């Protein structure tokens, strides 16, 4: 299911970002094409202004100068004196013959009532707008007509500029943009694979943990159910000993109730439905109460519980008093289970960098560095705890959730001389 979801996300990401990339490249290409055409038009108008001034001011026009202007600017220059063309034939070869293009431009200018066959009525020069002319082979040109009175007659300038090189440049730009677009989409595909893969890692990990949780819970529930079933069958076979078997059933029901309660606590934490009371807690009083409560329990286990407090009073913190006591109970119980016989368990607290630190220290076998991160996993148990049917490996998972619920952290480190020290840090400034 996750693989199908991953493919959908990759496709969605690639298509959406690819569409945006394509749109941007299309806009840039069109804008560049417009700029190139505008540059051509500006160049044409500059040449038109230069040549029209020469036609207007000079009586004789050098053919050499005209040929240079044509070559340098891809121009077709046609000058008439009183409707009669000059002997200059031009030096630029174009796909469509020069005469055809000139006639086409003249006809286009006629639509604006500009004729090279009639002398202007006024004494002012007459200039057409810039036209776009298409030849017989789809070759494109810019063109304009200029007529100026001269004595009793007039002169006409018909000027065209070949701009098909602009089209070739545009085709090159389009091909380049298309290639860039394909490469960009391919790159976005690989980037999307990486991003989606990274994004779904927590989901995959959560699903894996959920599967492990369900499998472990099923396994843990199967054992007491088997005992209950066996005892129920024994009651039928040996009614005289039913009390002993019923006590076994009651013990297993109590174990199942504890397991289910722990599982419900973790489920509430996962769905953010864990409710807490925020109140100012007297830290010294809380620790003394925890010590008084669990001292007999540790004594029963053959362990000594000691409370170590600083000379000055500890600052108060805000949180849920009962939840923090529950966290301490888990840590003390864990130390009592793991520590060696006649060990001393230390419960101590101190302030460090605007945090209240509460530690539970034992001198048991300790925990290997590679397993330290696993102790907070659900249903994780050390070898000794696996033999103890009263522990399911959920306590430290619940303790970690309780610590995070108070914006704190729960960690573990080695005890000096051997063993494990669990520490709970909670901000002081939340008070």
TrEMBL record:
Stretches that traverse the bilayer: 12-30, 174-196
UniProt xrefs under SMART domains: HATPase_c, HisKA
EC number(s) recorded for this UniProt protein: 2.7.13.3
Source species: Anaerocolumna jejuensis DSM 15929
UniProt cross-references to Gene3D superfamilies, sorted A to Z: 1.10.287.130, Histidine kinase-like ATPase, C-terminal domain
MF annotations from Gene Ontology: phosphorelay sensor kinase activity
Taxon lineage: Bacteria, Bacillati, Bacillota, Clostridia, Lachnospirales
Name this polypeptide is given: histidine kinase
Keyword terms: Kinase, Membrane, Phosphoprotein, Transferase, Transmembrane, Transmembrane helix, Two-component regulatory system
